[in-house]
Structure formats: C-alpha cells, structure tokens
Amino acid sequence: xxxxxxxxxxxxxxxxxxxxxxxxxxxxxxxxxxxxxxxxxxxxxxxxxxxxxxxxxxxxxxxxxxxxxxxxxxxxxxxxxxxxxxxxxxxxxxxxxxxxxxxxxx
Length: 106
What we know:
This protein has a two-stranded antiparallel ribbon with strand order 1-2. It contains six helices and two strands; from the N terminus they run ααααααββ. Helix 1 (about 5-15) runs antiparallel to helix 2 (about 20-35) and helix 3 packs antiparallel against helix 4 (about 55-65). Helix content is about 70%, strand content about 5%.
C-alpha cells in the first residue's frame, strides 16, 4: 500500500503483537510516504520506547518537537504494550519496564 495511514495501522498492529521488525519496517515506510504525519511520528516514538531504546526515543522526540507531556504519555503506553508481549521478560532489560507500576522506569 502507498497510503501512509494504512502502513501506520499495519505497523501499529505488528507492534501490539510484538513483531518489532515488521512494525519498524511499516512505520518507517509510513514516514517515508508522509514525513509530517503526527500519528506516525508518535507511533514510531512508541516503538522506540517499547523496545527500550530510550536514547533513540529521546533524540527522535527532540528532532520532531514532541512536547514532554506527550512523550510521557507515549512512554507509559509503551511500557503497557511491552509488558503484554509474551517475550517481554526475556527480551528487554528490566530497567526499562516496571511491570508492577506498568510504566517506564526512570
């Protein structure tokens, strides 16, 4: 599909399912199709936080001028998503996902 919204939705579905490689591919394609799409920008940030790549997420948020309040909302949602993945406990470092609080650990 050449519609960024379709690619974004597909990437989001893959992310929720824990298929990180496919999620990244679809979201990057959506960004290529529409580099200024706010939803795609936020979903790519979600992917970065959910996979524990806090440094890249911080840089992405700065480059895209994502407000701190929105970043925190995305961080919380990312922790919730990552905790639901079957392999979450073995795939990502515990310092990124605080399951008891269901939020990103600082």
